[in-house]
Design a protein that fits this description.
It is a single chain. By secondary structure, this protein is α+β, with helices and mostly antiparallel strands. The chain folds into 2 domains: 13-88, Elongation Factor Tu (Ef-tu), domain 3 (Beta Barrel), CATH 2.40.30; 93-237, Threonyl-trna Synthetase, Chain A, domain 2 (Threonyl-tRNA Synthetase, Chain A, domain 2, 2-Layer Sandwich). The protein is built from 4 helices and 15 strands. The longest helix is centred in the middle third of the chain and has 25 residues, at 90-114. The structure holds zinc ion (ZN). Zinc ion binds at residues 40, 100, 104, 204, 206.
Length: 238
Amino acid sequence: MTTRNLFYEDPYLKEASAKIIEISDQGILLDQTIFFGKSCGVKPDTGTISNEKGIANVVNVLRSDKGNIHVIDENPGFGVGDEVNLKIDWDRRYAMMKHHTTLHLISAIVWNKHGVLVTGSDITPEKAKIDFDMSRNFTKEELKEIEDQMRKIIEEDHPTSAEVLSIDEVVSTPGLIRTKNNILPKGLKEVRVVSIGSVDRQADGGIHVKSTKELGSFKILKHKNKGRGIRRLEVTVF
Ligand SMILES: [Zn+2]
């Protein structure tokens, strides 16, 4: 049995119930979960798992073939088969969902304008960093243009959606893989593809806000030359 990933069905679920199906040295496996693991630069969710035996803090979420493994600070006596309540730190998660959608939009804007790929990203609730395979700095005008386009896209309120495509379709469609290093695991048959209105469509395992208006205000905080042909943008939405 593998864990049902409720966060894909509804990324806005803050609480849910679940059943413990396995407990290992690493942590707890559940029949279903709202805890998202690390992906696309997003940090794993934190939160709590509880029942009448007590409450445990989820301090990390590891990915495994069977499903997400919930790493807890201390087991209050949970056993396999226990029904438990799940609760994620919603404010933290929602801020990271917003930053994740933001980075997809920036990667689309930069791809369309400059044709450069993403080499890495890092997302926290406070800000997001995105690195481009780019051998020169963005000019002041180009940075302004990115900000202007972001604000326009947010205002236009594009909805996000996800679909599952075959690996063959994904690799034969130009632009669906926007990272320099192909991060698709070997042997994969199907790939989740996320669209943001008419702005962006790319292979992605992450979760996003419903529509771009939720991003609010957008700002580029910093532009850095990271050396080795990498330029970094630090951005935030608030
Ligand atoms: Zn992503």
